Amino acid sequence: MEAVNFWEHKSLDEMTRPEWESLCDGCGKCCLQKLEDEEDGRVYTTALACRHLDLKHCGCTVYGDRLAKVPDCLELTPENLPEWKWLPSTCAYRLVAEKKPLPAWHHLVCGSRSRIHEVDRSVAGKAFSEDDVPEEDWEEYIIRWV
């Protein structure tokens, strides 16, 4: 049996696979395409989502096979989390690693997976499929709301 509020008592390394997976709030922000400035290394987020992101519910439609179907999909792990500085400040993985509390709208706190959309913290209604825009035009879709 998993502990209540396990994220407050366990490090990311100590979590079971189900606990780890349950941390994801379903915001979809990590599935938005990123552009890196070759000169200074800064990473910019676009409003263009991976073609496999369900834009209404913000879940991956090929989650189990995502690493095979999307060659540049990155798998978040406790080991590589520190490298992903571009993760949003509200990302539960980031918050737990920084020993910060989960937001009140997080499903593990409030009990509702839809709450994140109700409080406008996901990409639902704000993102477009990468298939809708030629890659040479992605720069025009850089956003600041992540």
Automatic annotation (TrEMBL):
InterPro entries: Puta_zinc/iron-chelating_dom, UCP006173
Record-linked Pfam families: CxxCxxCC
Family listed: Belongs to the UPF0260 family.
Protein known as: UPF0260 protein soil367_10125
